[in-house]
Prior knowledge:
Layout lengths: L1 H11 L9 H13 L3 H11 L11 H4 L24 H4 L9 H13 L5 H17 L17 E7 L4 E6 H13 L3 H12 L5 H4 L4 H16 L7 E3 L1 H30 L3
Parallel strand pairs: 1-3
Antiparallel strand pairs: 1-2
Amino acid sequence: MVRWLCLGILVLLPTPAWAWGEEGHSIVAEIAQRHLTDKTADEIDKLIGRGASLASISTWADDVRQDRPKSYNWHFVDIPLAVATYDETRDCEDTDRGDCAIKEIARNETVLRDTKASVTDRVEALKFLVHFVGDIHQPLHTVLEFRGGNDRHVVFFVDPIKEVRIPTNLHAVWDSGLIRAKYWSWGTYMDHLEAEWIPQQDVTALTKGTPVEWVEETHSAAVDLAGANVKENMGLHEDYLKKVEPVLDHQLGAAGLRLAAIFNDIFDPK
Length: 270
């Protein structure tokens, strides 16, 4: 009873245009942690401290967002639903709130590779990468329309036994609602991905590509499952979760593996 009440309250909270909630970012970061080479893990320990986990820093970029207005737009890439590909001029314009996640990921990779950069700058670059690689795999963070789902009101189920439904928005559903509806513990969800999803993947093929290609892949999922097909005040219940589960697994799992691949390429390219 307490579990479902808490879930209802959390999903009902107003959701700014941020990506995965704490659970989603923790899942992505922990999967990455488990797929680092020993050398990469050692180099990251030197930056963030031995014993600190990637999951523990995975929401830092959200924590500092209010104090760093220029970082606001770094969390997403606004691509119109009607188009399939990213256009830098249209989708990543530099403003007083920053440009977009694609450019910021590239900048942070450059800083993290630069051993002459200050430790402070490299640590921040690492923290931003952990977060933004996760962000670009949240489907609503690649959608221009209705503020990435924040302005698309829906009714979401929180207790399938008692058939409790609550009003919320599409962004909140993808941020945390779907994850919590499937597994209450983010650790359990991560264990599911490690034991059941990742072994079925061609990890080498999955981790190839660029952030632009990953964003376009995510945007395709958004168009199919989280875009125009979800109407205003539509009910999203157990059948919706069942429909999107494969995509949810893919987005979380792929983000973690790709984050690990980025770090391994930076710290242990051989």
